[in-house]
Amino acid sequence: MGMNARQQAIQAIASTYHQLDNLDFRTEHIKDLFGVNVFHEEEQKARLPKPVFKALQKTIKLGVPLDPTVADAVASAMKDWAIEHGATHYTHLFQPMTGLTAEKHDSFLNPTGTGAAIAEFSGKELVKGEPDASSFPSGGIRATFEARGYTGWDPTSPAYIRETPNGATLVIPTVFVSWTGEALDKKTPLLRSMEALSTQALRILRLFGNTEAKKVYTTVGPEQEYFLIDKNFVYSRPDLLNAGRTVFGAKPPKGQELEDQYFGTIPERVIACMADAEAEMFKLGIPVKTRHNEVAPSQYEIAPIFEDSNLATDHNQLTMDVLRRTAEKYDLVCLMHEKPFAGINGSGKHNNWSMSTDTGENLLNPGDTPHDNAQFLVYCVAVIRAVAKYPELLRVSVASAGNDHRLGANEAPPAIISIFLGDQLQDVMDQLERSDLKSTKQGGFMEVGVSVLPKLPKDAGDRNRTSPFAFTGNKFEFRAVGSSFSISGPNVVLNTIVAESLDFIATKLEGDTKGGKPLAKAIQDLLPGILKESKKVVFNGDGYSEEWHKEAEKRGLPNLKNTVDAIPTLIRKDTIDLFGKYKVLSERELNARYTIFCESYVKTVNIEANLMLSMGKTMILPAAVRYQGQVATAVNAAKAAGVDASAQVDHLKELTAALTTFQKALAALEKAHGHHADGTPYDHAKHFRDHVLPKMADLRTAADSLETMVADDLWPLPTYQEMLFIK
Ligand code: ADP
Ligand code: MG
Asked: Against a cut of 0.90, is the pTM above it?
């Protein structure tokens, strides 16, 4: 008998030789690689006429509108630089609502009309593109009669060269808007929200007498989790190939219970792939810093040094792209899905967030004595107030069909949004609330009990890994973001709700101080009340525990358990008012996003249901029926030979019962899936959640039970054990 796809996959993996020595850092220092493919500030300075360079820097650093006359000079320098780096084409890269990036390439080539050609790139081409791109989700903003979509250069994110086999492309980061200027993408609202926050944060700084800072940036360091699985397995699993997650698969004999994977030695092929991807990222100016094994088998993490949110978002999109592409070079597939394997940890993104002045001051740095640091307390309380006031918005910013498998399960933060402050900060906040600020708990040194070791300073508080929103020393860490997400959405929400809080606080303090109150007194009068109102969202205990769920309910904290519960937040009146007030998203733009969220949920679940039906019918059912035939034949043969076949008969009965359950579940899913719900996109989403998902779960249970019964040589799908442990 020939081998099935699964057996062929294993054999292919076992017999493939992988070229792992592709780089040599003895001859190429990483500091020399960094940024070589970026048209960064130094490159701009060297190539642009001085006044042009200055004008461009003013736009980049201070947000001054770009003088249109400089665009031609920038375009020309950019083109020369790009061609020297082997680029033949340029592209406006944008971030449509799919959460991915999109690009259309144009060559620099321009025929002269005399049979020759020259390379050209004008300021006009740099500044604006019209990719049409009418097939991206617009949530109704682009009716076909007004289908124009434009890309607009974002000078605050530097252009770069993307090297690919047989060439290179100049990539220009852009926003993507409709002809009416409405956002069709993820970058536009992010930039708007950063401006909103900067305006409000500066008001507070001015109250403290800071006249130097011209801008406040939000900063983000996203930690990215992912899986690497051999491509041979992915090719023989239509679910992994098409949905990025397994819709079938029995629990393996060994999972992650030995905890031998987390921070373990990184496998050879994987570390070669990581190093290759990182080298690529260095060239692109992405400051990658950390790599390690994650909790689940075959799961890893990469983390960069933080940057301003716009750049961090662009770089995180690029990081995902580089990881995916590089994995292929090593016959691996990089899975960014939030839950590729049931029963095994899923992947998230930890969005580390803070605010920093253009002069480099981190506004959430408490210093050694936070009780004495009024400015820090104001910014920190503003964040606490924002999260307490708008928890549902943070929740919806991380909502997706994929993340629904993860949030609220016992390895990811719960769907209840709460804040962890830690011992030290909690103590300071308690003092503040009592208007009795006296001291800060200090950590001292750790007692390790070994005298030869250098002294280890002790943190004043422990970490908490179960909180969705934790203060971690000098930043907040939003841990509920899904691994496949663009981090733009969560940061748009964070920036906007904190801008609103800062606005509220600044208005009060400005009023009071104008009336003659000293600033310190005005702060003392204001913050305790805010803390009293907001402290219901603060929780320092175990976020996974049953007690917390009960306690949160008592406190009246929202628990939006799934995406469909969370989506309506997007079009609530207070949401529309908030985003309208700070000019981050208009009512029409919010409505569009609401529709897109619904549609994307439906499409995702629909694809997975389709996959279950087709794999169920064409792969699992035939395998089970074949095996049933083999057992039946064996039973008959045994009986004919006159031996006791009762055990085989029992097995046949058990198998047949499991097969019947499976076929009934197939039929039930087919029916629920085929049922056409009328109504709005939201009604469709509800239908999929309430009627299709439960049938998918039933079918999976039935199939996974067959997997434990059918003869191994007949089972067509690579098993969890194989996919997770054959490396
Ligand atoms: P962990 O212990 O959670 O793994 P680290 O302390 O290594 O975290 O930092 C995680 C991320 O937080 C890194 O990407 C780091 O650059 C980022 N980070 C540090 N400071 C800031 C800040 N001020 N603003 C935003 N992100 C920050
Ligand atoms: Mg972290």
From this structure: yes
